[in-house]
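User:
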Amino acid sequence: MRRYIWANAMAVASVAVVIAGCGGGDNLTSGPHYVSDIAVPNIKTGVNFSFDIGVVSGSHYFFTDRNNASLDQIDIPSKSFVKAIQGSGPLAFTGLGPGPNSQAGPDGATPVGSLIYAGDVNSVKIVDPAAGAVINKIVVSTTGVRADEGCLDPTHGIFMISSPEENPPFATFINTATQTVVAKVTFTDNAGKPTAGLEACRYDATSDNFYVNVDGSTTNPHGELVKLPGVSVRAIPNGGTQNYTTLAGVAMYGEGNCDPTGLALGPGNDIAVGCREGTTGAPLLMQIIDRSNGALLASLNAGGGDQLEYDVSTNRYYNAASRWTSSGNASTNGACSAASPCTPVLTIVDAGSRSVVTRLNTGNNAHSVAVDPATGLIFVPYSSATSPAGCPSCAANGFVNGGVSVFAAR
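Assistant: Predicted structure:
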């Protein structure tokens, strides 16, 4: 039995209407709803499934899988698992590794033409899905920590990827034609302190700006949205390094008590920021900001996630809110535990009215989401109900084994 939480723009989780549907399917024929599950090799009951960012490219959905040290490929029309693309030798993904998450990979995944660029420890791996192979490695550091999330400027052929655990954190810019590093931007704030890290980035072709969520700075300890003008990045001498505060036209917009994660370009000048507050009891927020001047346009009780996506065909945002709670407020220190449980949901927000449309129950640690605009299908990986701890409702909602859940956007 799978159960679904629906909420209108003014509702809160505690008063949401619960609609029941039978396991493996749903009687709903319109509106967002669960469709099916897709099994992933070696992921089963009791396994802690470590995955990261997912993307749609053509008729396939791809996501990074640390358990299998692979980029996993799913066929969208048939909703079936195709292959786990693994490298070998120096082109192998790190996988879970013996250390913390910062030393594991692959991490972020970004389509670049017919290829997929995937962040990994010390490097970016380039995957050719047609060949089913990792075909190149671009080294960005030697410190043993990951290159995490990235974004593409397709106009100038520049790929940006963040290395959040470096000291100081930095972003690497790669020429996609030559597959070489052309510049780095470090993140030491105006007070001379390294920023707390880097999260998702997006490139806005209309304004020629890169945007990146910074975990915290001296001025904005719980997060800031940084605008990096593309022209200033491209002005860095080939192979050079420059600090973000010294780039011409740079802007830093405070995000309040946010602890930001996901980022999505919306309609007009809107940019949505997913917050995953680490302050116990703080409202879990999703903020919509005017990316031209940093003005706060809306603050919604719709946070607690990681990956955040905007789909133009539905004009909606999709937030994989793995750390949502029944109160809508952050659990203890923002983490899920048996003592302070989370109730993971896929939160859907109307980008026109800037209001919550609905919330659908998802599986344990379901922090990654991708939407196929052609079919309206939504892909959300999740871990088994009992690992990691902190989701007592997951098994009851039918998300037991781990894998990829498929939802319909309409």
